[in-house]
Amino acid sequence: MEPSLHEHFMQEALKQAALALEKNEVPVGAIAVFENRVIARAHNQCEMLRDPTAHAEMIAMTQASETLASLKKGHRGSLEGVTLYVTLEPCPMCAGALVLTKCSSLVYGVKDPKAGACDSLFRITQDDRLNHRLTVLGGVKETEAKTFLQEFFKSLRKERR
């Protein structure tokens, strides 16, 4: 996929991050793309759902699996042929789910030095010991993604004073 297309789709994920920010969630957004068409959109909903697993990536993957299963009779929900765009490098849980769903590729905005599992701390999505690996590209619209996160955590620190 050409770089401008990655930027276009990452902009859609950033819109989801903005929705999360409006709802006082950690501003992470994700979209799933299949055959150059957005088939799922999600943002973090951990606070709203009181569910620490309600990450944008997990919700987008579930939606994408449902969409693909509804399009093809007998489809088991794998994400083969899907690219997931997410504003923050996925954590170990989400990276593991990307492998288990057989997602084809991941494009993310900003690295997560504390919990990143695709480049920063771990490389789960590239681990030869697992049954599936995916293509990973980081740094797409990194500045914009980082700004959302900095804004959120800055306001959180102010609230706690």
Give an overview of the whole structure.
The protein is an alpha/beta fold and 161 residues long. It is 42% helix and 18% strand. A 5-stranded mixed beta sheet has the order 2-1-3-4-5. The chain is globular. The mean pLDDT is 94.
What's the short version?
This protein has five helices and five strands, in the order H-E-E-H-H-E-H-E-E-H. It has helices at 3-22, 46-49, 56-71, 92-100, 142-160, and strands spanning 29-34, 37-43, 82-88, 105-110, 135-137. The protein has a five-stranded mixed β-sheet with strand order 2-1-3-4-5.
Give the topology.
Layout: H1 3-22, E1 29-34, E2 37-43, H2 46-49, H3 56-71, E3 82-88, H4 92-100, E4 105-110, E5 135-137, H5 142-160
Parallel strand pairs: 3-4, 4-5
Antiparallel strand pairs: 1-2, 1-3
Q: Alpha-carbon distance between the termini?
A: 46 Å
Query: Main sheet: which strands, in order across?
Result: 2-1-3-4-5
- The dominant shape is globular
Helix share bin: 40-55%
Biggest beta sheet summary: 5 strands, mixed
Structural class: alpha/beta
- Helix and strand string, N-terminal first? HEEHHEHEEH
Average the pLDDT over all residues and give the rounded result. 94
Number of helices: 5
Q: Which ranges are low-confidence, i.e. pLDDT below 50, for 5 or more consecutive residues?
A: none
Q: Report strand %.
A: 15-25%
Number of strands: 5
